[in-house]
Amino acid sequence: MAFAESSMLLAVASTGLAGLAIFTAAVLRGWSEWLEFKRLQAARSADSRSGGGRIEIADLRSRVRKLEAIANGIEL
Question: Which of 76, 56, 54, 55 is nearest to 65 (CA)?
């Protein structure tokens, strides 16, 4: 009788441990996917900010050209 109880206890413990391992693997996979998603979001927002920076630089360059033309006495 003791052998049957111990084998049943071992089966339940093994099943619980396997379930815990599967759950842990799923949570870690979800966490890594979430981190990758956040990295992509950060990269996209950085790209959009740098695109806006290029527009600002182009605007500043055109202003400098206009000021240089005014300084040289050329009307645009």
Answer: 76
